[in-house]
Each structure stands twice: as C-alpha cells, then as structure tokens.
Amino acid sequence: MVERVKSQTLGTWARINQVTDSKLRKGLAIGGPTLLYSFVDRLASDWVHMPLTCVVGSFIVASIASLGVWGVSNRSRRIVNEGWLREAEDNLKAREAELAEIAKGGLDIEEVKRLRETNAGLLGKNSELEAKVSESEAQLSEYGATFRDYYKLRVFRGGDDGVDADYLLSDKIGEGGLGTVKFAINLNMGNRLEVIKIAKREVAIDEDYRARFFNEARIMLNDLHNQPRVVEVYGYGELDRCPFIVMEFVRGNSLAREIKNHGSLGFSRAANWMIEIADAFVKIHRAGIIHRDVKPDNIMITEEGKIKIIDFGIAKVTGREITNKTKAGSIFGTPEYMAPEQVEGKGVSNQTDLYALGLIFYEMLTGRSPFLGKTERLEFLTLMNRLNASWNKWSQGDFPKIARETGIEDKEGKLQKIIEKLLNPKTKYRYSKAEKLVADLRDLLGIEATPYETTSPGDGPAGIHKK
Q1: pTM here?
Q2: Which residue, of 119, 139, 159, is where some domain finishes?
Q3: Is residue 160 part of a domain?
Q4: What CATH number is associated with residue 213?
Q5: What count of Cα atoms within 13 Å lies in the side-chain half-sphere of residue 138?
Q6: For the stretch 317-338, what's the b/e string if a residue is b when 16 or more beta carbons lie within 10 angstroms of its beta carbon?
Q7: Phi first, then psi: what are they for 229, rounded to 5°?
Q8: pLDDT score recorded for residue 340
Q9: Mean of per-residue pLDDT scores for the chain
Q10: Among 310, 232, 231, 299, residue whose Cα is nearest residue 270
C-alpha cells in the first residue's frame, strides 16, 4: 500500500509541474491545499478508509511542504533551483519508513484534526496572498502587470551577509537599454508592493557597470536614507548574476510626462514644485552627493503632488570615486541637461546639478526646452552646436526673456534673475548652493522662510500672475 500511495503522490507532483504556465492564483497555491482539504474531509468520516486517508494525506502534505506553497516546475521558470527539487525527493524517500508505521497502526481522530488544521492554515495563507495579487493587479491595470514568478532573493542593505526574502515578480513593465523594471510583492513585509530594477544580462557582465549599479543602491541606502523627497531603496542583490535594486513604488507621473501632457505648468505650480525640487537637492548636496543626471525623467510627481528624486545611477559622492575605473575627463549625463563644465569634462560640482534645475524650471514655465522645440530631437553634434551657441549668448548676458515667452508679469524682475543665476554658463555667476535658490524662490512667492525640515510650500501669494 505504501508503494501505491507513493506512486499516487509522485503522480500529484507530476501534475504540479504542469501548472507552471498558469497564473499563480490558478496553480498550486489554491488548488493543492483545496484538493487535500476536500479529500481528507470526505474520507475522514469513513473509518474504513481512515488508514488510507492518513497515509495519502501525509504524503501530499509532505510533498506540498517540500515544494513550497508557491512551488512550480523548474522546467519552464527559474523559480526553484535543482537543489530544492533534490531536497524534495530526499524528503519523500525519508518519509517511507514513517508511512509504513502509519499504515500499520493508523491514526486517531486527533491526528486527522491536526491534518485538517494544518491544511486550513495553508489555505488561509494562500487565500490572503491570492487576494493581494488580485488587488495589486487591479491597481496596476494601467501597466498591464501580471504577477507570475516566485523568487527567494538574497537582499543586501549595506551589510555583508544580506537576508533571504520571498518575492512575487510581475512581467516587465518598463525596459531601457541597460535594464528592465518589474513590480514586486515582498511576502516578508506584509505583501508590500515594491519596484525592482534588474540589469540586462548583456551589460551585467561588465564589472564597471555592475559597480555603478550597486553604487546607486549604496548611495541611496547609506547617504539618502529616510529623505522624504528621494525615492526609498530597500536593498540590492543579484538574480542569475544580474544586479537588481528593490525600491518603493511611487504612484504618479514623471515631471517629463507632466510637461508633455500639459505643456506649460503655470507659474504657481512650477514655482512651488521647483521649491520642493531645490529643497531635495539641499539634502542631496549636504550628504556630499552630486546627482549628475538631473532631468524631468528623474523627478517623480506623486499622486499627492509631492516630489521624489530618482535614479542615482551615475551620481558622484564628494571625496570618493564611484569605481576604480572612473577616469579623469569622463563625461556622464544626458547631453541636453549637462552644464558646460560637464560637457567639457572639467569636473562637476553642486553647481552642475543647479544648472540642470534652471533648464527644468524653464521647461515647467514654458513647456519646452530652451534648446529644442516641443518634439524636436537632434543628433549629438547638432545638439552640441546649438548648446554652444546658447552658452555664448548667455555668457554675454543675452538670456531667454521668461516674461516675454510666457506672458508672466515679472514687475521686479525676480523671476528673470533666478533663471539667469541658474543658467549662467560661468560657474562664478551661478548659484553655488541650493539653499540660496530655495530662499530666492520663497521670496518670489512671498512665502515666509522656515526651516527646511518643516517646509511644505503651498500656493502662497505669488505677486506675479498671468496677464
């Protein structure tokens, strides 16, 4: 009988391997425990079949426990490794002797109750997870996200050992030249919804890139932890030799999309958001970090209208290089948002980030770049020629006239002075600190200066308005 039951159990295992291409909630997580519960409940009342009930129930419980609540085949997905499957096989073999004893003596009603309670607990746990998956997929329907894969990841937070964490990952929701982005449910943190960025395999083999990838995570964990205007990173690690970073999910739009959708954002909204952005860079620069890739794509606007700075992949920490391979004169950044000194490879400073803020402020006010049309895209050399032409004009004091271009009435010229001090190609005339920029923006809006930590600017009296 033991051999027959074992055969039946292995057959159940084979059926489990067939559900790998189904959505998680249609697979083992619900089906396995439900079938077991129904089987035990139906046969337990028949005392003639009690030994068979207990034997089969024990075998299936052992199989499910060995495979894991979310077990699926390793033939079509890298969800469980070969070692785990070998362990499951060993567990089945180890149960033979115990099953033989159970078959001889049977089980009492208390043991049957225990099996029922164990299975009910599994069923309840999986039902909770199933509900979270359904809820997350409904909330993320605009992204077309479907959660399919379970991974046990080793996640590091700056220490050497790291911790094992259980994750459900969605299909990819975004992809760039260097990596992909997916949603993740952290099963060890109350099913928290997160975002995971995974480097592509073709770039992950480059040690310099890997170092930069992990550098971003360490900067955000060690130097910018708990900064409300910087996206929070929860940890980093490797998945199949591809570096990954897990971070908070920010529901909202990038500033780039806001500008694309609305064009000019209007004076009040643009100025108030610029105060929050500049305030974020007060904290970033005080931590000794130069972002080096400040642009609207790397600024998130939450659903509540708050600012989150993201993507510190090429950031520099003052006083130390990012990797041993970083060479003097290396150029990093997005060309149309790079300051003259950055393009020329002369080195970067906090003022490099502040120059980019000037371009962003101009875009928020006008709906376009000072160099490009709303939908214009240029080849690199053409763009460089246009940048140089603009820098030559600005160096001679011929800056864009923001009042004329937007219709904003700037009677005292305060707004124009801010734009010019941000965009000046010569660093000696540019803002040197984000704190001074915040102070000037507050003065522009008529907002009384308060400590940065308690700042939350509203739509205070502008003193400047649309004609």
Answers
A1: 0.67
A2: 139
A3: yes
A4: 3.30.200.20
A5: 6
A6: beeeebeeeeeeeeebbeebbb
A7: -105, 20
A8: 92
A9: 74
A10: 299
